[in-house]
């Protein structure tokens, strides 16, 4: 029996990349899982992969939902509580980016879309989950980015701002909930090889080549280097850690250009 046996973990963006890998890591520890995404096919694949790890069918709930639709976000918490009766860990992982410059004509449209997905939905879901997390003395792990701490100049302007907001939200929520027994932390990955990196025309080789130059450890990271850190922050091993924003970026946040 794993540490999370009998506990319930809700993961947004569980149909792909870091979220799907995180689901596998919690499944291996016996957690009940509520997996959220828009793509039903990929969400079901994530659920099946968790069952291959030994999780019973009734311990995996898939919820098709768009994080940018308020009623969908409400339904995520309602469905989780109806199915499992409790919530112990919330992993706010769903997110995205749109390449956009300060000079872009569609800057404000893209800013609104990114902030709605990366920030507003995170705050709304956490708001709705908080009473259940207080009841279970649970925890929250937000998936931020190195861009929350350091600026990737140019095209990621709305994304940089959104992830800085996620970091500050992590600290705000951690302070507010500390006395109620709920811990709130974040992970800040550098380049991690997931489908998000290939959305804007770059090949895997190009992404890896660039990451090898921008990350002091000389390479990109993998989802299975982020998921264990998320599980760690949610676990009892991290029982005195709250308000932390943990870099998982091969040292990228440490340096500066010269
Ligand atoms: N990969 C990196 O280099 C990197 C670096 C730093 C931070 N991050 C962060 O890590 C998180 C996960 O990204 P990833 O790299 O794993 O990318 P990914 O493989 O593209 O996964 C993104 C996930 O977010 C979900 N999602 C996106 N928009 C959604 C919406 N409107 N409603 C519901 N779900 C939505 C997607 O699900 P559907 O497609 O099924 O809707 C998918 O499961 C993001 O917050 C990202 O900003 C990634």
What does this 3D model show about the protein?
- The structure is a single chain.
- This protein is an alpha/beta fold.
- The protein has a single domain, classed as NAD(P)-binding Rossmann-like Domain (Rossmann fold, 3-Layer(aba) Sandwich).
- About 45% of the residues lie in helices and about 15% in strands.
- The protein contains seven helices and seven strands, in the order E-H-E-H-E-H-E-H-E-H-E-H-H-E.
- The protein has helices at about 15-25, 40-50, 70-85, 105-135, 155-180, 205-215, 225-235, and strands at about 10, 30-35, 60-65, 90, 140-145, 185-190, 245-250.
- Strands 3-2-1-4-5-6-7 form a seven-stranded parallel sheet, with helices on both faces.
- Helix 2 (about 40-50) links the parallel strand 2 and strand 3.
- The chain is globular, with a radius of gyration of 17 Å.
- The mean pLDDT is about 95.
- NADP nicotinamide-adenine-dinucleotide phosphate binds near residues 13, 19, 68, 191 and 196.
Category from helices, strands and their pairing: alpha/beta
Distance between the termini: 50 Å
Helical stretch count? 7
Note the overall shape: globular
- The proportion of residues in beta strands is 5-15%
Assign the CATH topology.
Rossmann fold
Low-confidence stretches: none
Rg from C-alpha positions? 17 Å
Compute the average pLDDT. Answer: 96
Q: CATH H level: which superfamily?
A: NAD(P)-binding Rossmann-like Domain
Q: From the structure provided, what is the oligomeric state, counting identical versus distinct chains?
A: single chain
What is bound: which ligands?
A: NADP nicotinamide-adenine-dinucleotide phosphate
Order of helices and strands: EHEHEHEHEHEHHE
* Number of domain units: 1
Biggest sheet character = 7 strands, parallel
How does CATH name the architecture?
3-Layer(aba) Sandwich
Number of strands: 7
**CATH domain class name:** Alpha Beta
**For the largest beta sheet, what order do the strands appear in spatially?**
3-2-1-4-5-6-7
| Helix content percent band | 40-55%
């Amino acid at each position: 029996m794993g540490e999370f046996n009998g506990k319930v973990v809700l993961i947004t963006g569980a149909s792909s990349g870091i979220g799907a890998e995180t689901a596998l890591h919690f499944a291996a520890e016996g957690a009940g899982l509520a997996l959220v995404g828009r793509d039903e096919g990929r969400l079901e694949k994530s659920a099946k992969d968790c069952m291959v790890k030994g999780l019973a069918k009734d311990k995996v709930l898939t919820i098709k939902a768009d994080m940018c639709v308020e009623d969908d976000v409400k339904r995520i918490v309602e469905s989780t509580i109806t199915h499992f009766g409790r919530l112990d860990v919330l992993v706010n992982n769903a997110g995205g980016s749109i390449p956009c410059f300060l000079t872009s004509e569609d800057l404000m449209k893209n800013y609104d879309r990114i902030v709605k997905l990366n920030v507003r939905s995170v705050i709304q879901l956490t708001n709705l989950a908080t009473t259940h997390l207080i009841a279970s003395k649970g925890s929250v792990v937000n998936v931020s980015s190195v861009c929350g701490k350091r600026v990737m100049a140019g095209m990621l302007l709305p994304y940089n701002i959104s992830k800085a907001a996620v970091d500050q939200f992590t600290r705000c929520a951690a302070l507010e909930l500390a006395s109620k027994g709920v811990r709130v932390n974040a992970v800040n990955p550098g380049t991690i090889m997931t489908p998000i990196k290939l959305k804007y025309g770059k090949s895997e080789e190009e992404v890896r080549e660039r990451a090898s130059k921008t990350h002091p450890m000389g390479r990109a990271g993998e989802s299975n280097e982020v998921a264990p850190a998320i599980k760690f922050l949610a676990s009892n091993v991290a029982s005195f850690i709250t308000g932390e924003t943990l870099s998982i970026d091969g040292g990228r946040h440490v340096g500066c250009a010269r």
